[in-house]
Amino acid sequence: MVKLIYRAQRYPSWAWLDTDVQFETDGPEWALNAYGSMEAVLKPGAGSLVAEDGRPVFEERGTLIHADSRVPGGFRRWWTGIVVESELRGSRWHLRIDEWPGFLDGLPVTSKITGVNADPATLCGQILHRGRLDVGGLDVSVVGSTPIRVGSTSSNDLRNAKAALVAAEAALKAASTGKSGASASLATTKKTYAALVAEARAQVAAQQKTISALVSGGASPSAIDAAVEELDDRLGLLNDALASYNSVVSGASATVVGAKATKSAAQITVALRQNEYDAAVEAVKFDGGEYVVDPLDLRDSYEELRQLALYGFDWTTGTTYATGAPVLSLNVHHPAAGAVRDDLVFEQGVNVVSELALVAGGEYANVAYGRGQGEGEGALRWTELGDVSRMVRPVIVEDKSIRYLPQLKRLCADALRLAGEPYVEEITVRDCVQTPIGSWNVGDHIRLVGRIPNVGKYSRLHRIVSWRMAGPGVASIRLELSAEEV
């Protein structure tokens, strides 16, 4: 039979405060992709005990509680928690103890964490390390890795596309300014040289009138010759003015034509860069781009751990002991924790001692519409199709904290898997030879066999999502429905 021994240890001196704590408790909880918890009630007077260091024995955030479960000649399993509530309720002193990952719950990530083609197990390690530095938390190692890669180069591609678009728009603006300047210069040039030509023509016309007056007035031939010679000079000046007009205006017009061509080319470049930028935006929306936890967003460290698991792996907790601090690990399992346990029996009348009660799995749905972070057209979206042999019945999956498409896909797939079909949510089992307590792990798939009132014989695979000791030789197990293909 499993025996639980509880020990209290001071943080951060690691001094042992009590190596055999006595209290009433529902026992430690082992959970999948989450931290477990336990409630305890101390014996009268124990809540006010003071340790040799002058601090309360059961100090909030200053005392660790270790549960050591032993089976003589069999397995041994540890559980480490942190006292997060220690208070008097009425006449009894109550404790709430959260498993060690709970120290991250509510703790914002205060340093930037990024990843491109990164193993999410590595990112989990960075979050845990950051949490330890920020609050003097627990030192935790990540055990295991995955072939999954989180974060793509599309964010960098988007930055480059944005820079190229900005440069192209600047070039277009300069080209537009150049064209406008050239056009204005052409207009000014035309006006200036047209005035010179007009003045030269007026001089020619005036001289022609002078000659006509001389001829009609009977002027001497020499006077008329002199006037004609002056007219020739003025005609020469007019021709020079016309030549200058044509030359200068032609050059200015060529400049305008060149400026127009430059602007047209710049417009084409902007259109191309805009298309590239739009494509880069869509690529980021599709794959999520670079994995980023920005400290300005004050994202919760624990929620980041949970969301990383949505990429397609599970994590569980581990504790071993040496002298001093406990040796803690976040164990990464890919593609999933646990296995189908055909070697274990979970049957009413054998080791299942509770009634099998079905809970609703939600309304039937065969299409999931997912929505994550963002608003309007910029929101992260995904549609997951299920069984299409029946009429469409949708389920809406909305979580504004989801920033990456693979995570939203996982949530939508899970929603369809769990929608509609009832299942057994919790069972109580007793110790037996076929299935000793603790011979399973969270994540294991077990076949639950029994009879359910108004249903009849029941046999269905369920997955263990958490379990705890419910008394001497008895355990309580929480379940979810296993996927058919397991």
Physical arrangement of strands within the biggest beta sheet: 2-1-6-7-8-5-3
Helix run count: 5
Backbone CA Rg: 42 Å
Instruction: Write the H/E string, N to C.
Output: EEEEEEEEEHEHHEHEEEEEEEHEEEEE
Question: Low-confidence parts, pLDDT < 50 over ≥5 residues?
Answer: none
Strand count = 23
> What structural category arises from helix and sheet content?
alpha+beta
Shape: elongated
Report the mean per-residue pLDDT as an integer. 89
Helix content: 25-40%
The major beta sheet can be summarized as:
7 strands, antiparallel
The percentage of residues in β strands lies in: 25-35%
Query: Gap between N and C termini, in Å?
Result: 31 Å
Element layout with pairings:
Layout: E1 3-10, E2 16-18, E3 23-25, E4 29-31, E5 37-42, E6 63-70, E7 76-89, E8 92-99, E9 113-115, H1 120-135, E10 140-143, H2 154-216, H3 221-287, E11 291-293, H4 301-309, E12 314-320, E13 327-333, E14 346-347, E15 358-359, E16 367-371, E17 381-385, E18 394-398, H5 405-418, E19 423-424, E20 426-430, E21 445-452, E22 456-471, E23 474-481
Parallel strand pairs: 10-13, 14-21, 16-18
Antiparallel strand pairs: 1-2, 1-6, 3-5, 4-22, 5-8, 6-7, 7-8, 9-11, 12-13, 15-19, 16-17, 20-23, 21-22, 22-23
Outline the structure in words:
- The protein has helices spanning 120-135, 154-216, 221-287, 301-309, 405-418; strands at 3-10, 16-18, 23-25, 29-31, 37-42, 63-70, 76-89, 92-99, 113-115, 140-143, 291-293, 314-320, 327-333, 346-347, 358-359, 367-371, 381-385, 394-398, 423-424, 426-430, 445-452, 456-471, 474-481.
- The protein is of the alpha+beta class and 486 residues long.
- Helix 2 packs antiparallel against helix 3 (221-287).
- The two termini are 31 Å apart.
- The model has no long low-confidence stretch (mean pLDDT 89).
